[in-house]
Amino acid sequence: MTDSSRTVPLADVKHVRIRHLQEAKRVRERFVMLTAYEQYAAEIFDQAGIDVLLVGDSASNNVYGHKNSIPVTLDQLIPLCAAVTRSVQRPLVVADLPFGSFEVSTSQAVESSVRLMKEGLAHAVKMESTKHFAPHVSALTNAGIPVMAHIGFTAQREHQLGGYRVQGRGDDAKRLMEDALALQEAGAFCLLMEMIPEDVATGIDAAVDIPTIGIGAGASTTGQVLVWQDMAGLGSGKPFTFVKQYANLREDLTKAAQAFAKEVRQGAFPTLDHTF
Ligand SMILES: Nc1nc(=O)c2c([nH]1)NC[C@@H]1CN(c3ccc(C(=O)N[C@@H](CCC(=O)O)C(=O)O)cc3)CN21
Ligand SMILES: CC(C)C(=O)C(=O)O
Ligand SMILES: [Mg+2]
């Protein structure tokens, strides 16, 4: 296919659908995904032209105060997802299947995904997967549930993978290629690759027909994703290697809170302007 087969540029699309992401891959147009967990961020990212919003299981450590992704539950993610979907017009909303909500059986995967769509109003689900989860992806696809597959570093397997480590170095690249091809074959509409060497990601992107999304996977993927609080500089501590901070929200919010506290303590707020 050539550029002449395209419909409209992604930026002009009114409601982002899976077929628009597939078209982006075909015409080599990039798309943009950020996480979102509530109304204001979702609304702002919609208005800023972000194409896909991910209600990540990273809500575990970015909303619920856990140290990692493992404790967050389906019951905790569903209301966040519903809030995000209710707050946006244009973006495609994808919800993570949290740890423990899909592994047991293909039925469990379908039941959890149905809840993410019926109660959470998600348009698609994302599954941290390997080739061994091809039956799960296939069961979801057959049930009419679009699945984004997530390979490479997968935080739900932190303990099995031995920590937060780049995946697919050296001979291990073959394993990721097998995962990618099996998950595409099973029906995944998109492939997310996390923390893998750029050359490996480039090879996988070229080998699959479906669009790819990278986080710490270099520049050759169709789309890029970051956790929004990382992107906006809200988190504490040193940013991960794959993060670029486009704002300093932590600093801004600290200053605002300090200024409010100071004025209250001094009796400088409220003034007559803010008083009935
Ligand atoms: N705030 C936040 N950002 C994320 O990107 C994120 C989450 N939370 N929670 C779920 C997972 C966990 N992720 C993580 C967590 C830690 C590293 C990390 O420590 N990276 C280091 C070392 C990598 C290495 O050298 O192998 C880095 O500097 O990137 C990476 C991804 C990605 N996801
Ligand atoms: C890191 C991204 C891709 C994710 O899965 C999440 O935020 O949960
Ligand atoms: Mg996740």
Entry summary:
The protein contains 11 helices and 8 strands. With 276 residues, it is α/β, with parallel strands linked by helices. Bound molecules: 5,10-methenyl-6,7,8-trihydrofolic acid, 3-methyl-2-oxobutanoic acid and magnesium ion.
What's the SSE blueprint?
Elements: H1 18-27, E1 31-35, H2 39-47, E2 52-55, H3 59-62, H4 74-86, E3 92-96, H5 106-118, E4 124-128, H6 134-142, E5 147-152, H7 158-161, H8 173-186, E6 190-194, H9 198-207, E7 212-215, E8 223-226, H10 228-231, H11 249-266
Parallel strand pairs: 1-2, 1-8, 2-3, 3-4, 4-5, 5-6, 6-7, 7-8
This protein binds 5,10-methenyl-6,7,8-trihydrofolic acid, 3-methyl-2-oxobutanoic acid and magnesium ion.
Residues 35, 54, 56-58, 96, 192, 194, 215, 225, 227 line the site of 3-methyl-2-oxobutanoic acid.
Report on the structure:
Keywords: Cytoplasm, Magnesium, Metal-binding, Pantothenate biosynthesis, Transferase. It is found in: Cytoplasm. Homodecamer; pentamer of dimers. This protein is about 40% helix and about 15% strand. It has eleven helices and eight strands. It has an eight-stranded parallel barrel with strand order 1-2-3-4-5-6-7-8, surrounded by five helices. The longest helix is centred in the last third of the chain and has 18 residues, at about 250-265. It is globular. The model has no long low-confidence stretch (mean pLDDT about 95). The structure holds 5,10-methenyl-6,7,8-trihydrofolic acid, 3-methyl-2-oxobutanoic acid and magnesium ion. Magnesium ion binds near residues 56, 57 and 96.
